[in-house]
Design goal:
alpha/beta; 4-stranded antiparallel sheet; 8-stranded parallel β-barrel; binds acarbose derived hexasaccharide; 27 strands; about 20% helix
Amino acid sequence: MRLLLILLLFGSCTGQFNPNVACGRTSIVHLFEWRWEDIAEECERYLGPNGFGGVQISPPNENLIITNPNRPWWERYQPISYKICTRSGDEDQFKDMVTRCNNVGVYIYVDAVINHMCGSGVGKGSSSTCGSSYSTNDESFPGVPYSNFDFNDNKCKTSSGDIENYDDTDQVRNCRLLSLMDLALEKEYVRGKITDYLNKLIAIGVAGFRIDASKHIWPRDLQAIVSRLNNLNTHWFPNVSRPFIFQEVIDLGGGGISVSDYFDIGRVTEFKYGTKLGKLIRKWDGEKMAYLKNWGEGWGFMPTDRALVFVDNHDNQRGHGGGGDSILTFFDARLYKMAVAFMLAHPYGFTRVMSSFSWPRNFVNGKDINDWIGPPSYNNGSIKAVPINEDSTCGDGWVCEHRWRQIKNMVIFRNVADGQALTNWWDNGQNQIAFGRGNTGFIVFNNDNCDMDITLNTGLPAGTYCDIISGQKNGDSCTGKQITVSSNGTANFRISNSDADPFVAIHLNVKV
Ligand code: AAO
């Protein structure tokens, strides 16, 4: 039994399933569309000191410049070459970011767009972020180079050449996603170009990859590419560390393709997580927070050591990709903070926090017609820097959810609770719940429309703790609620449904 446990633990900590975060760090943050310069600063001034493990960055390789609509965020998902050259910065700036972040123990995870190149109807030109030319007419991308031998045209059997039916696995993997030029990843030549690109990033010092559109790549092709990746740079990582792989596969149940097709290759995005959690916290379809008691595999999610989890991502926060209307985002800040706090307190999966830019939503017939709007930028298209306000929030349209006190403090909570089982579960059968993580931390939610005044067993050592949601422990003082744990481990919690944030969290490091 003990041997089995050791094997299980060891298995989940090794190879491409291991996020490679520095010891004591447990989450990454997606700094969507940030410039490399700003990420480097953020690692040094904020992420390192606050225990973040890493940053998922936007695709660093050259992409098509799209002007209609004007510079949408999604132009970065239309590669033109593998030169490191985008609106976020050039190769020197990229190297500087990786070096500076790695030096403070915050690692970089690259969004790798390897399933396709740009849209098939783009035509001929050189309007790309580094000026490389392209022609979709004769399927040529000289910046790589790729030619018409390197695309999937012969394998796709739909008349449009696009994916027309998501229930047909062959279509999903052989035809064009969103009419994007679909690469023939079974070809040695194509695999070679992609591995050269990823290995170059590994040599610079990145810790892993999000594999965009993995669902549209045959698992054997992806496996072949992943197995050719080099070990991580030993300047920062232990010998023979494998790059962390997490694959974007949208599987909400049904459909021909299952997340389990990808378990051998690396971790996989668990899209059910945000969809269901959003429903629970919004109390849609009769859902209640009490049902969270067996959250995780008990809900039909993938095994915890395969799951990459998140409340929202850059797609489903604006209606792209999978998830649906229940997804919570910064637009619903009060509920969103509860969802993110629950995720960070709960042991299931490896957690990714979203950090967004804002845009003016405009719903027409239920669809946001502004879902394309790109990051805060100047008229010439260059992305604006992220200014930091006096109160440590961000300006100029950058939302910086990761800097919200409640979220930042829960990232730290997760670090403190790392490795501890879920304990002392309590619920009122409705939307008041509480649970601990061994004797390291305890969290209580009141999502009912009434006040809560209850004494619960926290599992924590006796003492006075500073609530990290309503305030902050500064030296010996506490700016928020104080919670007193008695010698038998119990404490009284009062949470009004009119509190700014109807939840309370304490952990070992906030004893006052
Ligand atoms: C843009 C234009 C397109 C144009 C294209 C080429 O918008 O009109 O054809 O250029 O010119 C992003 C944007 C796209 C953009 C693209 C390229 O989101 O709008 O296209 O850049 O610039 C599928 C994939 C998934 C993908 C997602 C968006 O499986 O991999 O679509 N996400 C990634 C990135 C994303 C990026 C790309 C891939 C491309 O994160 O940012 O696109 O690099 C079902 C399927 C899912 C499918 C969704 C969406 O989901 O299961 O696999 O995702 O549909 O089509 C319920 C169902 C659920 C269903 C969902 C949505 O919830 O249960 O299964 O509804 O219908």
